[in-house]
């Protein structure tokens, strides 16, 4: 029985425990109202309505302020304990607090983790790729501060995918696909992705920024061209037109970015997942475009022998293509990750704990 199969089974077992467990407040301090703490909190995602089956760049903005007399510590929020409707595919690209890049627990869908002095405010902007089949997804946010559950009046997160929604901007066509795997039996297993950005509009584009993020358990082996900036601890790199030795992108012209990834040395078997967001000024307006590869790559010595419904045995070999799902492992395992993530009622993320367990089980 493989380590990944044991991990998957442990997560399936944990999910019903979350459903039947006592409320979080029973194990800790009672919930407090935001008014009692002097905390104000607002959260909004834009857009929240879009066409089904297409990757959309969504920005979620959280604003908080301490209007009380005491410092508030460890302000955090996560996707709530209940949800309804159609589960989306998703991929987080970056999160910034007051303009500075911040790490985000994307597996557990948890954000924040900062303090506010009296009179201090904070703004967190999270940019992600989102795709849904037709329907509506809705969930609450769980807010905590100083180890307490905070009761705050916020609208639920609600995304609607419907055929009659407005078309996304089409001036730029952004695609991302898996184009190569290992070079040979003795080579370090790698996965190469190609991002292509094509100007489909009628005027040249003179301002453009490309931001790419890859899964945390990967390392960037090679990239062409070199990025203008990179933050390796957050698995983020960015390019501008000068990176491609361009002053502008003419109508019909394309930019091509190739990135190659390998597994972190501490990981036996992992999945390379990556997504890209392109920000450009088009006809005087700031617009965003994005894509995630429809195929990921299984890297390392992955052994599925004996796994029910698995993909057969075998060690490393080449990367195995799979259908793209939410951030995390592919296929049906994605559904398990989403279920555990949205069922997590604050505190430590079960998904994060499971990933840590997998490392220790090497």
Q: Briefly, what CATH class of the largest domain?
A: Mainly Beta
The strand count comes to: 23
Proportion of residues in helical segments: 10-25%
H-E string:
HEHEEEEEEEEEEEEEEEEEEEEEEHH
Q: How would you classify the helix and strand content by structural class?
A: mainly beta
**Low-confidence sequence ranges:** 1-28, 304-325, 329-362
Write down the CATH topology of the largest domain: Immunoglobulin-like
Please identify, by name, the CATH architecture of the largest domain: Sandwich
| DSSP summary: helix tally | 4
Question: Can you summarize the main beta sheet?
Answer: 7 strands, mixed
Strand content: 35-45%
- Specify the overall morphology: globular
Q: What's the pLDDT, averaged over the residues?
A: 76
The figure for the number of domains is 2
Q: Explain this structure to me?
A:
This protein is mainly beta. It has two domains: 28-161, Immunoglobulin-like (Sandwich), CATH 2.60.40; 172-304 and 315-325, Immunoglobulin-like. Helices cover 12% and strands 44% of the residues. It is built from four helices and 23 strands. The strands form five sheets. Strands 1, 3, 5, 8, 10, 11 and 12 form a seven-stranded mixed beta sheet that branches. Helix 1 (3-20) runs parallel beside helix 3 and helix 1 runs antiparallel to helix 4. The two termini are 13 Å apart. The model is unreliable at 1-28, 304-325 and 329-362 (pLDDT under 50).
